[in-house]
């Protein structure tokens, strides 16, 4: 089998076995039906930035009506890809992977949600990100779905598709008007399988842009292997390194500087707001005692979820050093060492010729 587009550019970074590659292709949407695993792409008619890309995706060849779904949903099928449309909030429909399997008998390998993005800047953008609210306490209510203290298993495609999105957007003439960016881990809904959001932002003017919708549809078409059978971002990587981003702003600029490089895999990205830290008391001008807050739990569950999304990979923490005060950095570094989580520098994540 030919390597995927991501693999073609980074062949020295992968240990490819044809049997495992074929199995992964089958799960991802390119290849045979032997695995009986399907991939869900989810859109809602209540969101123009969701239904627009879905309509453009459905206009591409190979689609047929999907299995009947209860609850007023509509589905379409193309190889091992299933597109599911509903009319409710995209972040409120929990457990769609489980509900799909119960309704159809088809096990779900991953879920990709199409959604709008909002930003204070109002700048047009195409984004991709993992989901979860690992920093919330049990007594807190997530403002946009999910469960307090939970992090979804991140889809391994996030890094490769971020780079694919950059290429497609440039080819379609959306750059520099549109910013192509990662986002930090945030919001729901609940899922049990590898998950990511692909979004169009950041205002009503751009949510309905047909050229943006077409670009997202092309990312789906190419990325899922429906164009040539070669999916982008299929995880095969025994021994591959995976970035767990810790710190920084919502758009993870210092982590993104690494992920933009070919061959880099990325899991959860925890911005500063996902690392609530209570300053320890001061004794004689020095910090004394534990650093409180949900930051340790947030790191722990995000690390575990990232490990689950990249079986056989080496999850390495990358810290946005400048975003922390000294006591914060010391506490995080000590905790990572206690948990035997390696801390990496930018070059540690890059592929090297062997």
From TrEMBL:
Magnesium listed as a keyword: no
Keyword field: Hydrolase, Metal-binding, Zinc
Record Gene3D superfamilies: AF0625-like
A Pfam family hit: tRNA_deacylase
Gene Ontology molecular function terms on file: D-aminoacyl-tRNA deacylase activity; metal ion binding
SUPFAM superfamilies xrefs: AF0625-like (SSF142535)
Claim: Cell inner membrane is one of the keywords in the record: no
InterPro entries in the record: DtdA
Domain of life: Eukaryota
Name of this chain's protein: D-aminoacyl-tRNA deacylase
Organism listed in the record: Aegilops tauschii subsp. strangulata
């Amino acid at each position: 089998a030919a390597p995927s587009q991501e693999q073609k550019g980074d062949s020295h970074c992968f240990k490819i076995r044809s049997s495992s590659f074929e199995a992964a292709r089958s799960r991802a949407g390119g290849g045979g039906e032997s695995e009986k695993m399907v991939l869900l792409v989810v859109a809602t008619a209540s969101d123009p930035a969701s239904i627009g890309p879905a309509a453009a995706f459905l206009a591409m060849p190979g689609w047929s009506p999907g299995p009947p779904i209860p609850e007023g949903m509509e589905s379409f099928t193309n190889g091992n890809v299933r597109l599911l449309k509903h009319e409710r909030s995209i972040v409120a429909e929990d457990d769609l992977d489980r509900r799909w399997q119960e309704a159809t008998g088809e096990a779900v390998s991953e879920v990709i949600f199409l959604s709008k993005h909002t930003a204070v800047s109002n700048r047009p953008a195409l984004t991709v990100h993992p989901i979860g609210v690992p920093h919330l306490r049990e007594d807190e209510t997530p403002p946009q779905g999910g469960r307090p203290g939970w992090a979804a298993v991140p889809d391994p495609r996030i890094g490769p598709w971020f780079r694919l999105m950059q290429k497609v957007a440039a080819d379609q003439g959306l750059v520099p008007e549109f910013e192509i960016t990662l986002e930090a881990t945030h919001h729901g809904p609940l899922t049990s399988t590898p998950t990511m959001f692909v979004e169009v932002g950041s205002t009503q003017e751009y949510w309905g842009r047909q050229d943006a919708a077409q670009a997202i549809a092309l990312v789906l078409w190419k990325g899922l292997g429906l164009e040539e059978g070669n999916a982008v971002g299929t995880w095969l990587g025994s021994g591959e390194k995976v970035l767990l981003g810790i710190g920084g702003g919502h758009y993870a600029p210092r982590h993104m500087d690494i992920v933009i490089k070919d061959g880099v895999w990325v899991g959860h990205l925890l911005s500063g707001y996902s690392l609530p830290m209570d300053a320890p008391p001061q004794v004689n001008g020095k910090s004394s005692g534990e650093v409180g807050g949900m930051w340790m739990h947030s790191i722990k569950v995000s690390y575990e979820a990232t490990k689950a999304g990249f079986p056989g990979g080496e999850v390495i923490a990358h810290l946005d050093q400048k975003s922390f005060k000294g006591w914060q950095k010391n506490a995080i570094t000590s905790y990572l060492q206690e948990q035997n989580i390696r801390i990496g520098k930018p070059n540690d994540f890059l592929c090297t010729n062997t």
